[in-house]
Target: Export ABC transporter ATP-binding protein
Amino acid sequence: MNVLEMKQLTKKFGEFIAVDHISMSIKEGEIFGFLGANGAGKSTTINMIASLLRITKGEILVLGKSISQNAKFARSNIGIVPQEIAIYEDMTAYENVHFFAGLYGLRGSELKERTVEALEFVGLGDKHSGYPRNFSGGMKRRLNIACAIAHRPKLLIMDEPTVGIDPHSRNYILDSVRKLNGMGCTVIYTSHYMEEVEEICTRIAIIDHGKIIAEGTKKELEAIVTNQKNIWIEVRSAEQLNISKLQEVAGVNKVEIEDRILKFSSDAEVNNLNRIIQLLMADHIEIRSVEEREPNLETVFLTLTGRSLRD
Ligand SMILES: Nc1ncnc2c1ncn2[C@@H]1O[C@H](COP(=O)(O)OP(=O)(O)OP(=O)(O)O)[C@@H](O)[C@H]1O
Model:
């Protein structure tokens, strides 16, 4: 069953097309990764699913029902963890979750029980009367997640939930996502951290300039770049490097420098390593190591969009 379906979903801001005819479905039980660089259109898409932004064109169905005609039904079945933490600093942790779960439609004793349950779930069971202003960034994030899950949504949408938090809370959040998924919750997960997406997502879509440019399991996406090889060359210092000369080498599609590592994406069948090394030596660049890397989501992303996710 499709928990979420987007049909030709489009959003224009004036003449600018932020989301461009996206058609995609997310099935029950998936942890669906939504990858895109800054400004690719992820938040705009999510905000339309959450009914926070009006759809310019197209349709969104939640559990088979169009959200424009069934707003209340959609709201009660979706939980959103927004990119910016959205909690009230002057309300206790308990009051925050109680408030948001109420907005999602819970009432009475059910509302109270689920509030307690959600706080317990995110590891804030002993912080009911604590104020978020005294919480760490990670605790605020977890509280924000409790606010989104207390009504037990069928679909949880998390927009970069691990940005800027400590490793302990980050691991806690990733574990919570898996646990929620195990309890039957379908998850859409957007992140800038490729490793996280690789680790937890069952299927992934890559969005660029408002369009879905690839979609599939990690394995399926990696198969797109099997005609590519990735060579990493570690050098002592990249200061003197003439990158444009390296980009001219036959077969080389892209060169990136990260710290002191030169990352080459190149046609697999072109034997150009000798030429690359010659050029580095001619510029007196000291090579520390050379390594051929297996394709991963990072290289898929780079090959398809021409830039790295964290540009
Ligand atoms: N209210 C708005 N008015 C005009 N342009 C907008 C508006 N909201 C977003 N945009 C533009 O739409 C494009 C997509 O933005 P969006 O926030 O969806 O990207 P994103 O993929 O979520 O990126 P990020 O990771 O930075 O949040 C961007 O070019 C952005 O500048």
In short: Residues 2-222 form a domain with the Rossmann fold fold (CATH 3.40.50.300). The CA atoms of residues 93 and 128 lie 5 Å apart. The mean pLDDT is 91.
